Amino acid sequence: MQLIKLSATDSTNAYLKDLMFNNNFGDFTVVMAHTQLKGRGQMGTNWLSEPGKNLTFSVLVKSQDIKVSNQFLLNIYVSLAIYETLSQLHVPDLKIKWPNDIMSGHNKICGILIENILSGQHIQASIIGIGLNVNQLTFNNLPNVSSLKLLLGSSFNLEELLHNIVANLKSLIGKSREEEYKRLFEQYEARLFRKDKPSTFTDHNNEMFMGFIKGVSSGGQLKILMEDNIQKEFNLKEVRLLY
Q1: How far, in Å, CA of 33 to CA of 81, rounded?
Q2: Is residue 226's pLDDT more than 50?
Q3: Dihedral sign computed on CA atoms, order 232, 235, 237, 239
Q4: How far, in Å, are 46, 93, 187 from residue 60 at the CA level?
Q5: Fewer CB atoms inside 10 Å of the end CB: C or N, the chain?
């Protein structure tokens, strides 16, 4: 693993993407920032991080021969790698909130943003951005946000955590044979936040509805059992879990 440390950058994803196009960097090159000025989350949201307190980094994963139609596998690899790392620290009540937030109880502790570079029907490379709340203690009154230090009462070495996450990610991607796909999906689904619990959602028209999260389709759509006992599948921009 090649590690590039930055004192500050707008976005580790953007920095790594520029590097990738202008240099021949190897698989699992990592860019880590002490301060990320314009960190991004899913659907254009901002990722707020106190300088030097948290893990803000991006990983370059090169051609794993994943088809564009199967790109949700990357979400599964990354989510499970982080889940495994945090499980080893005994973080309580860990769950994966679809598509790729990591929760402790009802509090978000980690966000993931994956950007793929495509070549025909296959993914040529992926830039995986990860923001993990580690040693930060206050979050400007943001609701339902926590950190490892708040949850476990001790400080953590950021680079050690980074190396553990990347090692777990390498291990999972190394098992990306077809016979492993089903097992990985099952592991991801078993850890889903609010799976099989009555939950409230809003749709793309901002209308509320009730349902039960049942799992994820092979294309990464969230499967929800509706009140009329019909199961529907939703893309990221089509549904939002409220509680």
Answers
A1: 20
A2: yes
A3: positive
A4: 21, 29, 24
A5: C
